[in-house]
Every structure is written in structure tokens, then in C-alpha cells.
Amino acid sequence: MPEFLTIGEPLVVFGATDLDQSLTDATHFKKHLAGAELNVAVGLARLNHATQYITQLGVDPFGKFITKALKENNIATDYVHTTKDAWTGFQLKERVSSGDPATFYFRKNSAAAQMNTQVIDEIDFSGLKHLHLSGIYAALSAQSRQTLQYLLNKAHEHGITISFDPNLRPALWASRDDMIDTLNHFAFQADIVMPGANEGKILLGSNDPETIANFYLNRGVKLAVVKVGTKGSFAKNAAGETFFVPTFKVDHVVDTVGAGDGFAVGFISARLEGLSVEAALQRGNAIGALAVQNAGDSDGYPNSEELKIFLKS
Ligand code: KDG
């Protein structure tokens, strides 16, 4: 019976294989699976957590590629819809020797952006323990924001814990103010909020982990988890306890995209398994470190055995 649920827009990403070439100049690309919430679903399923994913695909080769990948990754497809009226989104991604790669989206008015609240009405919430949401789905359309709010309300009614990763993507928003207001509006309704410290700078004007945590804890969030770049991860709970776990050293970073979602996989899966906040931060850091050593967003996410070996080493 599924215990983990998420909603979002899956993407196909064409990652350039030409190093340090702009998207204009790169000529070779490799196809991977992407989409922040889908990354989290892939990671949870790989760690044997029964996972449901709500989305909508176009009737096109990208949609078929994603459906195949969902099945290969043991993600339930009961709530994966299709429409003939819109395409599945995709994006291009640079390959860079340092820093974050530039990306370019082809996703406006995509199939996933057009899901409405009816898709939520068909969900069987029995047995579900955790819902993970991200600000990317909130950025897609007025309809996606309405659907997200409806899902949040239903999850609250059913007593399911909710995590929210703001996942700031300014390119998807009409304005910076709209982005900040909407993301904080959703964040305040979650049990666990997990921004990056640099996102805190934009969302509330500070990149100090404890200031960020206090901002959300003072507004009803139970646990604030802050990813502090290459340093580690910090958490503070409503009782005022603080935790910090440093990151694992990575010798060769291939691609930073997907590391934040990998962190979410580690943190959420550990909490679902009853581990402490500290152990959850450590597992989050571990999967983030594994993620950056591979080109695809989720290609480096481990199964239970691989995770055990990495943590031992
Ligand atoms: O977090 C990784 C995502 O950025 C990537 O998979 C693509 O969902 C995506 C987005 O909208 O940026």
C-alpha cells in the first residue's frame, strides 16, 4: 500500500555532453528523466517506499518515455493521466566543469500544468503517510496552484505529514513578489519546510540557517530544514532543538542538479523509517553527495544496499 505521495511535472531533460559549451553551441545531448518532485519519487521508490505520483502527460514520445521510466522505477501510475490537448514538457541542460549548469525550459502550458482538482478527488488517502510538495508545481499555472491547495487541504484532513521544498525557479514566475508570496503561503501550511540557505535570502531576506528556520517555525511549521550549500544541513524543531550535520566530501562533481531533491529523498525516507532528525540530515547529505557524481538528476540516487555501503565508507 503506497505510503508516499507527490505531485508535479515530469520533464525529459537533454543534458549536453559537450563540456562547458553553451546551450546554443552544444551539439551532443543525452536524454534523462527530470522534474523535481519526480526525482523525489524515484529516490523514495528506490529505497523501497511504496510511492504514488500525480501528474499528467501528453500523448507523445516524451510522455511514453516517462511512463516507461515510472514503471522501471516501481512508481505506481494510478494517478498518471494523459491528455491529447497538450505536450509533455522538456528542457535542455548544460554540462559545466564548475558551478550550476544553465537550463532552458520547453514546458509552457504543458500537460502537467493543466491538471485540475478532479485528479485529487480520485485519490485514495488510506495508508498514505507523507506528501511531498515543491514550489515548482506551484509555479506552473493558476490551475496548478489551485490543485496544490486542494491537495494540501485533503492531506491535512487525512492527517498526512507534508514536506515543502520551495525550489525557487524565477524563470517560471510572473514576478519575484508573486514567487515569494506564493511559496511562503504554501510553506506555512507544511509540517516540514526544506529551503536552501540561498533561497532564504530571497524568501525572507536572510541566508542564516537559524533565522530562516525561525521564520517558518514562528508561522506554524513543525520542523525547518535548511540546506547550507557545500557545508551541510541544519534543522530546528518547534521545541527549539537545533541540529547540524556536515556534508560528505565529493572529489569530482559532475552535475549539481538533482542534489536538493536527493537530499529530500534521504531526509524523508529516514523520517518515514523512524530515524532521528540527525540521522535524516546525514542520509539527506549522503544522497545529495551521490547525486552530484552523475549527469542525470536521479541517476546517482542509491538503493538501500548502495546507501548502506556509502554510509559505511
Ligand atoms: O530539482 C531538479 C529540477 O530542477 C529539474 O529536474 C527540472 O523540475 C525541474 C525544474 O523545473 O527545474
UniProtKB/TrEMBL annotation:
Cited Gene3D superfamilies: 3.40.1190.20
GO molecular function annotations of the record: kinase activity
Presence of keyword Transferase: yes
Record-linked InterPro entries: Carb_kinase_PfkB-like (IPR052700), Carboh/pur_kinase_PfkB_CS (IPR002173), PfkB_dom (IPR011611), Ribokinase-like (IPR029056)
Sequence ranges assigned to domain Carbohydrate kinase PfkB in this UniProt record: 8-302
Keywords attached to this entry: Kinase, Transferase
PANTHER family for this protein: 2-DEHYDRO-3-DEOXYGLUCONOKINASE_2-DEHYDRO-3-DEOXYGALACTONOKINASE, SUGAR KINASE
Family stated for the protein in its record: Belongs to the carbohydrate kinase PfkB family.
Protein name: Sugar kinase
Species per Swiss-Prot/TrEMBL record: Loigolactobacillus jiayinensis
